[in-house]
Amino acid sequence: MSHAIQERPVSVAPRRGSLSHARLPRWTPAAVAAFSIAAGIGIGLAAGWHSKVQWGMIAGLLFVLTTYAVTTKVEGSRQAKDRVATSLVWVCFVLAVIPLLSLAWVTISKGMEVLDVYFLTHSMNGVLDTEAGGGVYHALLGTIEQVGIATLIAAPIGLLTAVYLVEYGGGKLAQAVTFFVDVMTGIPSIVAGLFILATWNLMLGFGPSGFAGAMALAILMMPVVVRSTEEMLKLVPNELREASLALGIPKWRTILKVVLPTAIGGITTGVMLAVARITGETAPVLLLVFGTKLINPNPFEGAQSSLPLYVYEQYAVGTDAAVSRAWAAALVLIAFVMILNLVARGIARWKAPKTGR
After folding, report:
1. What single DSSP character describes residue 121?
2. How far apart are CA 306 and CA 295, in angstroms?
3. Contact (CB, 8 A) for 135 and 120
4. Helix pair 137-163, 264-279: axis angle to 10 deg
5. Torsion over CA of 319, 322, 324 and 328, rounded to 10 degrees?
6. Do 272 and 232 touch, CB atoms closer than 8 A?
7. pTM over 0.90
8. What is the pLDDT of residues 86-134, one digit of tens each?
9. Are 333 and 311 in contact (CB under 8 A)?
């Protein structure tokens, strides 16, 4: 028995509004930036402003306003607010990078005029400050020894203090330590130098030496190490500590084998920030090390020089030869800090716990 099949029309639901909306091309931020720079320069020239800082401020303002206007027209006000926030981040980034690049360019261009092997391997012994020649070896040696001793003093003390505050502290002693660390963070370098001068030199009767300067630098370095290490240790998940303790591992071994390796990258960065701060200090060296043109490899006896003090002394002379030596020493100082950072990051990556399979 056959049955007739009747075809029924298929009903189609009404099409709703599409969720997609108009989007700006990817090259829009670059085009807006180029337009803003050109407009900023044009407005600055038309107004008779010769400062490039003013041109840059106008260009940054135009970049934000143009981005908001164009995005509102095409994508709507909600997306425009998001793009404006991103634009402000980029403008702040550029404002921070431009002075840094300018400083690096000027230092490299002026420092390379006299920077060579001779400059790095000779001192100023027998050379007048007003004459050409001489080198920076005695100051570089003094900086390496003073910063190295200060790091050997401050880094372990700061690391252990941070471990106590995070892993063991919680009472009034921890609160007192935190308070004094905060106070020490804002101590001027001259105060640290005067403290060592009053105790080590005047009360105990020791003379000027690189070790005295290193102790003052260690005072400046310790609070930075404590604070940065403390924050890095707080970022280690408690689950890692609990898992280690659940296996019966003592707390001290958990800190040594689990907590510290997990935070080693941030700890190293904090130590290097502290090293970068003390490397450029001049006041403690003036008070405690005195400075000399001779090569003194013994940091525990006699006056020494350092790169910041060498830069100050040469620039104060004012002659072309002395100013060129000052720029070259400043370039050596920057390179010294950069090399330390690269070495520290390599060690931190090597010692960090391995991830993946």
Report:
1. H
2. 11
3. yes
4. 140
5. -160
6. no
7. no
8. 888 888 888 888 888 888 899 999 989 888 899 999 888 888 888 888 8
9. yes
